[in-house]
Amino acid sequence: MADDQQKPPDEPAGPPLEKREDAPQRIPDRRAASGVPRYQRPGDTPVALAGRVLRSRWRALRDRFSRDFMRRTLRIGVSARIFHPEPGATGLRSKNLQYLEESIAQWVMSRDVLVFMIPTVNTNGLLHPSNITLQHYARHLDGLVLQGGADVSPQTYSESPTRPEWSGDRARDLYELELLHEFVEAGKPVLGVCRGCQLINVAFGGTLYQDVATNVPAALAHVHTDYDAHRHAIEFPPGSSLGRMFPNAGRPIVNSIHHQAVKELGRDIRVEAMSYPDGIVEAIRYDKADFVMGLQWHPEFHRAGGTDLLDCTPVLDEFLRAARETRL
After folding, report:
1. Which residue in the list 232, 258, 259, 298 is annotated as catalytic?
2. In the chain, pLDDT over 70 holds for what percent of residues?
């Protein structure tokens, strides 16, 4: 009897699911009858869609590359000052030292770039030979600053020193001449400061006054015990790029810390500024490159935004723009 009262195994226990009050309601399918999403274009094909996807991916990659390229920090090399061993000295002063003057590094870094001092290289070194050359630095850095320092040796422009104390630093000349030519050959911008300005002129066949006071007696005093506090006026010749950078400057004031100066201009070198009123060359530019400029004064000693001395940040900005445009 018990078996007779059991329900068939395939009979549902209770009312049908769709009739239950607590059953979930089925959402109607509102997709297009064709099965293609309605946001797609009418008559679209897989090939056309794939083309648009690839173009979108390309735009995203291009925009990302552009952002990364523009935000990548510039790397500027600065030539080394060289301290030669002093006779009879011990310790540090008995060694060859290469160093970077703090003010020039801080001036360049004020525009948020990385600064690297470029040492001399010696592929024939007895203790630590290396295959690294100055060409490698020119290849991997974005620009070069030639900082100030010791006199350029008269031997470098085929003259003899008229006084022993004006013999200059021939070893540094050879190092910086090679460095300059490597950066010019690589198409990278170069900015020379004081000695660096003179070296650019000599590098292209120019000469220097070994001593302004001796060679040009009527000239103003261009060096003084006041050092960076000593100053004079300059003026820009018509058509100079510096004149375009400072259209309202008139006769600005710069510091003056040099007893040597440009005499005969090198090949393809033009004058960018002269001291007033004596006409001593105070800035030059090499015409066969996008940016190779020399300033006889020290822009790193001028206060940014200052009014007493010429604010030279436009020169730095022009140099760094050239570095950005010529980078690989």
Report:
1. 298
2. 86
Contact 206, 265 (CB under 8 A): yes
Please give the DSSP secondary-structure letter assigned to residue 34. Answer: T
User: Lowest-pLDDT range, 19-23, 193-197, 303-307?
Assistant: 19-23
Residue 232, number of CB atoms within 10 A of its CB: 20
Distance CA 78, CA 105 (A): 8
Write down the pLDDT at residue 31.
61
- Which candidate in 194, 232, 282, 318 is catalytic? 194
For residues 271 and 241, the answer to whether their CB atoms sit within 8 Å is no
Mean pLDDT (the chain, rounded): 89
Q: State the catalytic residue, choosing from 300, 302, 312, 318.
A: 300
Residue 136 falls in the annotated catalytic set: no
CA angle 93, 197, 292 (to 5 degrees): 120
Kindly list the distances between the CA atom of residue 93 and the CA atoms of 98, 99, 118, 128, 149, in Å, as whole numbers in the listed order. 12, 13, 21, 21, 18
8 Å CB contact between 312 and 245: no
Q: How far is CA 102 from CA 90, 164, 166, 204, 289, in A?
A: 25, 29, 25, 29, 28
d(CA 203, CA 114): 27
